[in-house]
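Lab notebook: predicted structure, single chain.

Context: the supervisor wants predicted structures on file for every construct in the current expression panel, including those that have not yet been purified. This is the next one on the list. No modifications to the sequence; it matches the entry in the shared construct table.
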Amino acid sequence: MSHPTQARLRISNRASPRQKAAPARARRSTCARVPVCLLEALRAGARVEISQHREKWAVTVDGEVLARRARREKAEELLEAAKSEVAAAAAASLAPHAPAAAAQRTVVITPQRPQGEAALYTVVEASQLVPSHRTTDFQPDPLYPAGVQERSYHSDQSERLKVTQGAQQLRPEFLLARTPSPLDGPPLVTEPPSPIVLGGNGRTMMVLLAYERFPDQAKAYRAALFDAAGDFGLSSRDIARMKAPILVRQVEGLSRSSPREELAAAVRRFNEGLTQKMDPTTAAVAQARALTPDSVRALGRL
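Prediction complete. Output recorded below exactly as produced.
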């Protein structure tokens, strides 16, 4: 069985006769976040190829066009960056983990867990994070587990407006505050790979939107993060090499493969005490999602 990093790669300098005859028949992938989808395809050992389609070079996954680039070199860079990330993750999983710097460690305090739960400050590329909704159209991100996020950005105009205005008026000092509260400071995410956002979903979308549409605000956030790196036990040199860095708090013991009930309960905890209260219907749905199967069975016996 081949290692996931050994996904088959074929680069052709010109299209084959079959490609020339029907270049438009290649299926277009529905993936909304190309880097994340490419990483998952490589980890799964999918057939990843680079070939010419009309005037552009396409990265395809099992025959579906995932991304198009004007030059072959750009398509190669996209694929090689993803392969390097997979290889690094594989190596890290086999090597002994180095202890995190004391400054990286923190706790998140909520009413349900006043003793705090362990988390780790870290910086990730914006393209690696998976919030509940896409910033391009505020529709649910298919990569985010269904039934976990409480807020409906796709149907609530006020929530969309809050994210857009927050990106336009981004305040790095709030996003980079060292605090045990889940309601302020860096977003709370699951452990890698492809960390999903549990707390600060709106704050995450604000930073993502700033990187996409508001370069001045993104530049200010990046500069503030560079200056504050040492406060969180991180390297400013590593941050300088990143394209779109975001500071997050990685909650220990939770991953995207954790049971849905655990993820929904974490979202509930990290949303407790928001200044903007949820409406009764949303709050009731959120509380229902936090119930475990054992709790439901116990209620049924009452």
